[in-house]
Amino acid sequence: MPHILIVEDEAAIADTLVYALQAEGFATTWLSLAGEALERVRQAPFDLLILDVGLPDISGFEACRQLRRFSEVPVIFLTARDAEVDRVVGLEIGADDYVVKPFSPREVAARAKAILRRLAPRELSPREASGIDAPANAAFQVDLERHRIHYRGQLLALTRHEFRLLQTLLGQPQRVFARERLLDALGVAADAGYERTVDSHIKSLRAKLRQVDPAAEPIQTHRGLGYSYDPER
């Protein structure tokens, strides 16, 4: 049974979320302070966080920044703000989705189910099950079991989103992936309007690859289309 931590200081909102999530088969824990939630995540695993942006101790955005220093647990933000910049910032700092108040608790439950379904481990092919999904002489070596990628023999320090993006690109060299398809790889609904966050993650990925090989440009931009991996670059 997936366990969801709800961090919301308004009891009425939290109660409706607890009811809707438990009706869908989730276990829930409710806390009203971000600091307490961060400590709880350090102590016990959760499958998903539903995190209000406007909390009384620290903001949800700051809480997510601190969370990402030690955990890659998926996060859905709850907020009364609907500006595009807030949605983009939320996703860039590591959230998986963004729900604007007032909202339907059933919609939040559906989004939680969709995120957990996308992030669920898939059945590995015999080749992937061996642990390394790349030829020994390739520039990239993907360790699916440990969620690690080596580039030219060096381990990359990747976030969960960066790992999934790079894994998707490496899986089909030369294929141009639209931003919507890459969002799907991150577990974000393609219709959520968050295409710009893909650009931010790609920029971060490129910076980490240049630290290993400043002259190489394996991730190619196709204006108006998306991104691809070119093993020759």
UniProtKB/TrEMBL annotation:
Residue positions where 4-aspartylphosphate is found in the record: D52
DNA-binding region(s) in UniProt: 129-231
Domain OmpR/PhoB-type: 129-231
SMART domains per UniProt: REC (SM00448), Trans_reg_C (SM00862)
Domain of life of the organism encoding this protein: Bacteria
One Gene Ontology CC term in the entry: cytosol
GO molecular function, one term: phosphorelay response regulator activity
Residue ranges annotated for the Response regulatory domain, each copy included: 3-116
Keywords attached to this entry: Cytoplasm, DNA-binding, Phosphoprotein, Transcription, Transcription regulation, Two-component regulatory system
Record-given protein name: Two-component system response regulator CreB
Native organism taxonomy: Bacteria, Pseudomonadati, Pseudomonadota, Gammaproteobacteria, Pseudomonadales
